[in-house]
Amino acid sequence: MSMDEIIHQSETRESAKSPDKSSPAPLEPVASNEPRLLNREISWLAFNTRVLEEAENKAHPLLERLRFLSISAANLDEFFMVRVAGIRGQIRAGVTQASDDGLTPTQQIEAIQKHAQAVMHEQHAIWGRLRQELRTKDIFVLNRDEVSNEDLVWLEQQFMEHVFPVLTPLAVDPAHPFPFIPNFGFSLVILLAHRDFDEHLRALLPIPSQLERYVRLPGPSIRFLALEDWVLLFIDKLFPDFSIVENGAFRVIRDSEMEIDEEAEDLVRTFESALKRRRRGSVIRLTFNADMPQQLQQMILGEMGAEPGVTMPLEGPLGLSDTKQLILSERPDLLFTPFNARFPERIRDFGGDVFAAISKKDIIVHHPYESFDVVVQFVRQAARDPDVVAIKQTLYRTSNDSPIVAALIEAAEAGKSVTAMVELKARFDEEANIRWARDLERAGAQVVYGFVDKKIHAKVNLIVRREGQTLKSYVHFGTGNYHPITAKIYTDLSFFTCDPALCRDAARLLNYMTGYAQPAQMEKLSFSPLTLRKTLDNLVDVEIKNAKAGKPAAIWMKMNSLVDPELIEKFYEASNAGVQIDFIIRGICCLRPGVKGMSENIRVKSIVGRFLEHSRIYCFANGKNLPSSSAKVYIASADLMPRNLNRRVETLVPIENPTVHKQVVEEILVANLRDQAQSWTMQSDGSFNRVANGEGLSAQEYFMTNPSLSGRGSALNVGQERA
């Protein structure tokens, strides 16, 4: 999972009573000294703590708990590479301006260090407990002193064949300067003594990332040895005539932000150059084993040139993200029961003809419960259909062997007009995006790289087909990426329609991306950076007006992050007017719920489970008790963050088809609001309380075990309750 991400709690709340016809009495204002916003970075660390705590959730199989540990460690690495790097850059630039929550960059770093250190120590404590539990299931991660003589014979042979050739021992002395250690660089530092002479040698042994972190030993039982322990067993092969006096290990995380010149003449070449610079970014975090001898610590700290505050000693192995290598498919008893996504029955009913199914009625597909293959089929069918004349698609992230890209190449080679909007600024996917963008160009597709100062984060695929004497358009809007791998673990929505207005809007939006020409008008679609924020503001204003008029007023929203201060203030205004607001937020939430006089009518929950909650759904009561057919419902590519609303191209798509509308509101939203098994409730101070440890309704389990209910009524007893 990437991550990996996760969401909130689920109490079943009492049914919403219609308010009195008179306007609600004004609420007592919040104390002036109370902060109105929570810090974004601390909120993210709280999210990652929820991920980590799933490693202790006994309702999950043991190896899945290990996976949660690995994900939390990988998440933290990326957090330091990107977010912490950015804040340290502000400090170096002399920035003292406080963030929206009132903390200066220096104060943020201090708070981050405190929270992150606590998280990392807890990760190692959990690893120790999981390691012991693994032993009870006959899975052993051995120490060096647990290796038998028979094992040593096998390990030596394997070492000389597979490890020794790729290791490069480096002396550290005036003639051999300290080498550059790349991002994620993991190295051993060693003090050696000559066996025959009074001579000491300081040495460094970088461990290539191409080597597996854990080697599995032969035999009937499942036994692993960490790579660093394996190397230390045969260090004499690398340093003959020397013996180890002291040793330690350290790991480096570097700044991975990229600065792009907005005046760049060639964006692709600029990115290729920036990618090379990123590999040599400044040290953001330097971890080392806590028992590393002092003189070796001083050597590393001095040679790495790390700023104060970036070092962190740890008890236990460095780089816990590598523990994912211990997750074995041969132990299904310790894994989640395999789940096979269903292919949407609506399309199966039409013999797999996606266009025929969409022509009959709009379709929404709920991933990963319903297969991403339908999205691939949409493009493949277009590529092979002689009546299709044009395909226009945004591409933000996809897999290295993407079937979507293969289908676009096939379409271009067949002579169809293919336009691909490739986003080069998709963090950590830049190199892959450049590579397959060039593949598309070679096939004859028109590849466009969008804006220098904005990311194209919208997920849109427009297909134009000749039907009789006219051209008919079909469009796919998604909340997730065109990535077949992540689609198996991310919960997302794919919406297919041939609604003429939405198709025209999609064409206008794509023309804006390729030609920079702002659309004169949009019929149904809202998009950032131009109209999405205004649309949301207007929808909230309607709820405020209804609440003040004594009508039912409510907002249900599901998203990954809520950060934007302007919208948060709008939600506070709505709460004070009497609007009942329920948020399902996987990750960051800077809003403070449940504060008297500010957010009394706002509840926030987070769901952390087997799948990564990723879909964005925005629902407004529109004068009726939720859930109802009158609600205004939208799916979006955008979270409610300043970057999504101001500096990205995003979509907000209205869901108007009654069947799809009912599925999104009465099935997906209601199930998520009622989830208890994987839910956490947010408190006004930003902390979260688990609702039930694996007990009660699990929305994810519900969707896995219930076929698509679209058009058949929900198995959930919705009634007029507020979840």
Concise description?
The protein has 723 residues and is of the alpha/beta class.
Output mean pLDDT: 88
**Share of helix among residues?**
25-40%
- What percent strand? 15-25%
- What is the distance, rounded to the nearest whole angstrom, between the alpha carbons of the first and last residues? 28 Å
Query: How many separate helices?
Result: 18
Query: What is the fold named in CATH at topology level of the domain at 345-515?
Result: Endonuclease, Chain A
Would you report the number of β strands? Answer: 27
Overall shape: globular
Cα-atom Rg, whole angstroms?
28 Å
Care to describe what's here?
- With 723 residues, the protein is of the alpha/beta class.
- The protein has 18 helices and 27 strands.
- Strands 14, 18, 19, 20, 21, 23, 24, 25, 26 and 27 form a 10-stranded mixed beta sheet that branches. Strands 10, 11, 12, 13, 15, 16, 17 and 22 form an 8-stranded mixed beta sheet that branches. A 6-stranded mixed beta sheet has the order 2-4-3-7-8-9, sandwiched between helices.
- A hairpin with a 2-residue loop joins strand 15 and strand 16 (470-478).
- Helix 1 packs antiparallel against helix 2 (62-92), helix 2 (62-92) packs antiparallel against helix 3 and helix 14 (532-548) packs parallel to helix 15 (565-577).
